[in-house]
Write a structure and sequence with these properties.
The protein has helices at residues 36-39, 53-64, 130-141, 161-173, 191-198, 216-223, 228-241, 254-257, 260-270, 287-290, 292-295, 303-315, and strands spanning 13-16, 18-19, 28-32, 46-49, 70-74, 83-87, 92-97, 105-107, 148-152, 178-182, 205-210, 245-251, 276-280, 320-323, 347-348, 365-366. By secondary structure, the protein is of the alpha/beta class. A seven-stranded mixed sheet has the order 1-7-6-3-4-5-2, with helices on one face. It starts with 12 loop residues before the first strand and ends in a 22-residue tail after the last strand.
Amino acid sequence: MGSAHIGFKSLMRKFKAVLQPGCQPLVHRVVGYADIANDWAPDLRFLVRVGSAEEREGVERLQNTGLTNIFWAEDAALEDGDVAVPNPHQEEVVVLFRESDTHHSLFMTNRCNSYCLMCSQPPTAADDSWLVEEAIDAVRHLRKSPDVLGLTGGEPLLLGVGLRRVLDAVAVHHPSTRVEVLTNGRLFANSKIASQILEDLTVSVKWLIPLYGHADFVHDFVVQTPGAFDETLAGLLLLQMHRQEIQLRVVLIEPVLQVLPELAGFVGRNLPFVREIALMGCEPIGFALANRDLCEVDLSEWASTLELSARVLRRHDIPHLLMNAPLCALPQRLWPVAHRSISDWKNVYAQECESCAVKSDCAGLFAWHEKGWKPAPLKTIEESEVVS
């Protein structure tokens, strides 16, 4: 199982580690050597961070007393509270969940029924249903309940009852946690699948669903799947029928920007029940690199389009936010709705950002922008340029 993670480099962190022989490639909670007694539980597995031969021997003495669910790992990159899968054959550890992160998510599947032009995690057809069991195991091993836990892919709805099992596990082990499921929503057009996942659901869920145009010829082109627009709308209406919270997601590539004001009006007129709409800078990785002519845009050149679209959304009283875009790429009038949204371990700042007056409020850049592109020419903003 451990080797299967190698294909998911853009979603998971891997660290080289010296691992105790016999350690299994299963989900473990990482704990410091001094905290074993406080954290230990019989129904969990623990990876104990050690820094010396004495500590390794201490773990082995505990094993000899009957604590067979602990193993040591020597790696300074691991943190207490990590949920991780050791891979002893490769001498590495895959971190599924890092407690100290701002954003938390679990990867559910690499399969998908869309092939979006800018997909950051190109889908594969391989059976990865074992990820459901890993996600449930990861939920059990969380030391603290996160405020929000994302479930992502691929397309999580392809898991059917498997997705529901993960949602129910969150409800049991972390009832205060809110879940955000990133899904294209198309399979909710199937009433059987919708019932499997939504009926008597007890955990609080926000469904993050992409919509890329006001008509099928735009949306279906972007997701490279005929009929996807109609299925997405049917799924959105079914979610509304079940009183589920919805965030629409709009990735700002050229075909989408060309119709963005029309899309904003369509949402306002036809989908007024959505909780909010997120306008998102494109992640320069995956299929976006192969479709660079359509996906690489200078957002600063689309400032008037972004402002007009925001005005349309305000007129329809649709809350909106901007994600994955540095502030210098956006008109200042939109800064109040721009969010720091890039996952901690993907997030970097360029040299121009170091002395910028608004760095602390800025989303920054994806770590791999140098191999792809920046969302706009970067600019250091002086304090005197900030309009209060």
